[in-house]
Amino acid sequence: MSRTTMRAPNPGWTDPDCPVARTLDLVGDRWSLLVIRDAMDGARSFTEFQRRTGIARNILTDRLRKLTAHGLLAQRTAPSGRRQEYVLTDAGRDLFPVILTLRQWGERHAFASGETHSILVDQHGSPVPEIAPTSADGTLLDTDTTHVQKTR
C-alpha cells in the first residue's frame, strides 16, 4: 500500500517502525497470501477463492474484507453485471515479487528431491528465473551484505 493510501497509524502494529512487521500485520497469515496468490492467478469471485484454497466461508469473508479495506484488493462489478468480483490493486500487484520469492523458496526447501510440484512460467512457457537481490552495482545481496538503518 502506498503512503498516500495509508490510513492513520494502527495502534496495534506489532512493531510500528519495521516495514516487515507492518507487512506481516497486513498479509502475514496463511490465508491472506493464498488469496493474493490466487488473485494473481486469475481468481475473481468468492466461489473461485473458496474452491482454490479450501478456506472456510467465514474466514474467506474476513480475509477478503481485510484485503479490500487495506487497499490490496478492490471490488468491482463483474462483466456479467450480476456479481461483484475482486481484483488486485497496484498495492496487491506489488506483492508479486513476495509471492514469487516464497514460491521459489518453497521449491528449494519444502519438497523432497523429485517430488512433484507446480512451477511458475512466463508468457512463453519458460520457467521464471530465480530472483536474486542485487545492489546498485550488481553485487548479490544477502544477510551478510545488508543491514537495517533507521530513517529518523
UniProtKB/TrEMBL annotation:
**UniProt keywords, alphabetically:** DNA-binding, Transcription, Transcription regulation
Q: Where is this region: Disordered?
A: 131-152
PROSITE patterns (UniProt xref): HTH_HXLR
Q: Which organism is it from?
A: Nonomuraea polychroma
Q: What is this protein called?
A: HxlR family transcriptional regulator
Instruction: Please indicate if the UniProt record lists Chaperone as a keyword.
Output: no
Which intervals carry biased composition (Polar residues)? 142-152
Keyword Zinc-finger recorded: no
Recorded GO MF terms:
DNA binding
Q: Which residues form the HTH hxlR-type domain?
A: 18-114
